[in-house]
Amino acid sequence: MAEAALVTRLDGDGLRQMFSAGAQVLEANVDAVNALNVFPVPDGDTGTNMLLTLRTVVQEANEAPGSSVSDVANAAARGALLGARGNSGVIFSQFIRGLARTFDGHVDADTALLAAAFVEGGSATYRAVSNPVEGTMLTVIRMTAEAMQAASVHDTAITDVLDAGLVAAQEAVAQTPSQLPVLKAAGVVDAGGEGFALMMDGALRALRGEDVSAILLELDGATGHVAPGFLDSVESEVYGFCTQFIISGQGLVPDNLRERISVMAESTVVIGDESMVRIHAHTMEPDALVELGRTWGVVDQVKIESMDAQHQEFQAAHHEEHASSPLGVVAVVQGSGMEAVFRSLGVGVIVTGGQTMNPSCQELLDAIDVLNADSAILLPNNSNVLPAAQQAAELATIPVRVIPTKTQPQGIAGMLAYSPDDGIADNADTMTTSATSILCGEVVSAVRDAQVDGTQVQGGQVMGLLEGKLVNASASHHDALTSLVHAAAPEAGSLVTLYWGGDVSEDDANDAVESLQHAHPGTEVEAVNGGQTHYHYLVSIE
């Protein structure tokens, strides 16, 4: 068999090949990387976030109009910025932007330029993080780059320099537990660093013409097992909200934004340029952070997740033994505030999803398994989730009763009637009765022009829907909400609960409470932060 030709320069097609192979290997190993994600606050699953970020890199790189290393890297960098998910994805995206800055204007790269690009990529990741911590993905990238830079002095083959980087990456991953006490306590290596090493392995083998499908991460007792007591040791921590958004504007200065946000938040990552900046931070006041962002430009792609709820779900998924119970509840929930409400009412396992995010039957079955109960109540809380819930109930190995809740307020009403001391049949009857006894409303913006219940609604108008029927299409969520509650005609003594989310602020919600109480004397009105993404308000009237 003839030896492969010596590759001394990397062009755009070669860079595309590296990205694609890295994504292929990460996809094959995403579950294994996720299993390593045992930080007290999992910022989403590390492997999944990296993979989804890398997929946008691959897509943009493949669609780049040219084939120079500059063309491909710049396209990849924009894809990485817009597609970054979670802490690991954001950090990786900054690494890609570092590559792009170094490759900018070059048709191809020799080993020296390739190593310099990795060094800049590594430096960029450190600059993007307000408080860099060694023993993480940052360290792995830095040590990879340093080894490549040293090798480029005497090696002219691209694959030889990448090989030196891969060896360093794997060694750096193995050392992470000795650098970060939380990893040592958990008995694992850093998930983000492992993901990066896997991508490097795939990129190198692809350039060598080797099969990348053989790259499979095998977890053993030293790298993939959560040490006993580790999760218990972090149960009392308070984590707040993982807050992410993009700012578009002119004359933005990422360094200045990072310094300002670091005063308000932890784990701050700020990346971008003068026209677009992506923010990632952990804070107890996400709304204040987003409002600050609006003072600098147009805010988009806001994502706020409860890390407390994530921690509880993560904990449930990683404990080797779960306390069994005669009966438990699984609920499909969307919104950090909603998750907190459902948990406070006794829901054992939450499946994140709902509108636009319909969980599969398998996801619901997995949640029932995690519940570790003799029987289960399942709350779909969305009409589009109901069919999968019913199918999961038929396939489950334990008795499961589906309460046909079509909204989250219905699910909450059902949980108010839940009694863990009663049997599944009695609970199913009382919860169904309670869930269907309330009126439900929704205030949501129309995303396009449409005919709704005989009324022409323009895209951008805010619709007030009562029991799924259009009441009013207004210019503001306040007007739509007012019309909705008026149409419901609550009697004196009724309780109107406003679960606010979307772009509604706490001040907006409080103003709505005052206005509705004035318009409907004798009616009790309260506002709860639901944190749902798509709806300005979810309304319960009982």
Indicate the topology:
Blueprint: H1 12-28, H2 30-35, H3 46-62, H4 69-83, H5 86-103, H6 111-128, H7 137-151, H8 158-179, H9 181-186, H10 191-207, H11 230-233, E1 241-248, H12 254-262, E2 266-272, E3 276-283, H13 286-294, E4 298-306, H14 307-318, E5 325-333, H15 336-344, E6 349-352, H16 361-371, E7 373-379, H17 386-395, E8 400-402, H18 408-416, H19 424-435, E9 439-445, E10 450-452, E11 455-457, E12 462-466, E13 469-474, H20 477-488, E14 495-500, H21 506-519, E15 524-529, E16 537-541
Parallel strand pairs: 5-6, 5-7, 7-8, 14-15
Antiparallel strand pairs: 1-3, 1-4, 2-3, 9-12, 9-16, 10-11, 12-13, 14-16
Question: Characteristics of this structure?
Answer:
542 residues, alpha/beta, Serine Threonine Protein Phosphatase 5, Tetratricopeptide repeat, Alpha-Beta Plaits, Rossmann fold, 4 domains, 6-stranded mixed sheet, 4-stranded antiparallel sheet, 16 strands, 48% helix
Compact summary:
By secondary structure, the protein is an alpha/beta fold. The chain has helices at about 10-30, 30-35, 45-60, 70-85, 85-105, 110-130, 135-150, 160-180, 180-185, 190-205, 230-235, 255-260, 285-295, 305-320, 335-345, 360-370, 385-395, 410-415, 425-435, 475-490, 505-520; strands at about 240-250, 265-270, 275-285, 300-305, 325-335, 350, 375-380, 400, 440-445, 450, 455, 460-465, 470-475, 495-500, 525-530, 535-540.
